[in-house]
Structure formats: C-alpha cells, structure tokens
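Much of what follows relies on a compact textual record of a protein's fold. A complete example follows; check for yourself that the lines match position by position.
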Amino acid sequence: MTTTARRPIVPEVRPDARFGTAPLLELPFPNRRSAADALIDAYLNQMRRPSRTVFVLDTSGSMEGDRSDTLKQALAALTGADASASGQFSRFRNRETVTLLPFSTTAGPASTFTVPERDPAAVLRQIRAYGDGLEASGGTAIYDGLRGAYETVRGGQGGDDFTSIVLMTDGENTDGSSSDFAGFYRGLRTRVPTFVVLFGDSDADEMRQVAALTGGAVFDARRASLASAFKEIRGYQ
C-alpha cells in the first residue's frame, strides 16, 4: 500500500488517509468479447513496450523428420497461423524484433525481423518462410548457439525494450564450446533471461542450470506440444 499506492485487500490493514472515504465504483467490464479482444490487442500491439526475442533453434541431425516439422509448425503458430484466441494473442507482436538463430555443429547466422507497427502481415510471412526453410543436419553446439544469441543481444539492445532468449533443443551438447558458459554470462554487462524449451532427449539438468543462471525458466515440451510451450513463454515476454 505504501510503496505502490494500491488499496489493501487484507481487512486488518487500515487504508491510508490519501484514499479518502468515498465509496468505490467498479468500472464496467465490456459485455462483448470483441470489445475485450480489441482492448487486449491495443495493449499488446500499441501501448506495451516493444520486446526483442532471440530464438536459438536446434537444427541438428536428430531433429530431422517429425521433430523438425513440429518446430516449423510451432514457429508458424507464432506468425498468426494459430487462429485460436490464445494463438492470436501469443503471436509475434507489432513493434517486436524477432531474431532466429539456428545451430547444429556450429551456430548459424542470425536473421532478424522487425514486425512493423502497422500492416505486420508481410513480415510475419517472412518469418514463417524462414522457419519453413530450416533443415536438420550435423551435431549439437548448444553453447555456441547461446553465445551467438548473447552476442547478438549485446550488439543490438537499446532503449526500454524487453529482451529475452528462447533456447529450444532436443539433445545434449556434443560440439563446439562447452566449458565455462557461466563465466561468459557473468562477464556480460546486461542480464538477459534464457527460457529453455526441453524437447526430445534434452539434458534436463544441464538446461535447468542455464535457466537458473540467467534468471529464465524451463518449459517441458517432451510431454506436451512444442507450440504450447512457445505460447506459454510468450506470457513472460
């Protein structure tokens, strides 16, 4: 109450005098879903501070086949292919910067897309086309991919954008650098959380350490759909 000027809900806490004694009138909630949807859409795409998300995507050989198809479908859902209410509210938002960084034996080049404030459809199609073009082969250099993501963030972060990294992997690190990622992270000036999506045969303990180190969280897509995990992460972004 003192710090945030919110009225206490606990009866034993007496409200400050600054709140006055006049009765409170509840604001009416829209009685049409279309009105509520419009309010949420306006908040997400116009008023909310822009966000920047770097997706670090496992494209190693073990992803070939169904796993790769599942990843492509999950990315497509974030571009608006999911027509459900939750799908539309979890899609990439207007003014959001999206970077896709695939990795296999090494970290691939990062591709960045900025969704415009108006008429986002063209850029969303570009993101979807990029995802559809991902091919699986090679080993699994998880930490090279993560380092590449943090280098990308360090080179492009600015303003008040909310920045986060999403790591999706279906295995354990087999290639590239694996030593002292913690030291690398602690040497960064900015702190960006990594949200880890466990998929396939991921090394759960190791990935939980990454999430804990960076202040992120772990989402298990081994027992649920990858698209659902991505949707859940969007609630943090």
Q: What stands out?
A: The mean pLDDT is 90. The radius of gyration is 21 Å.
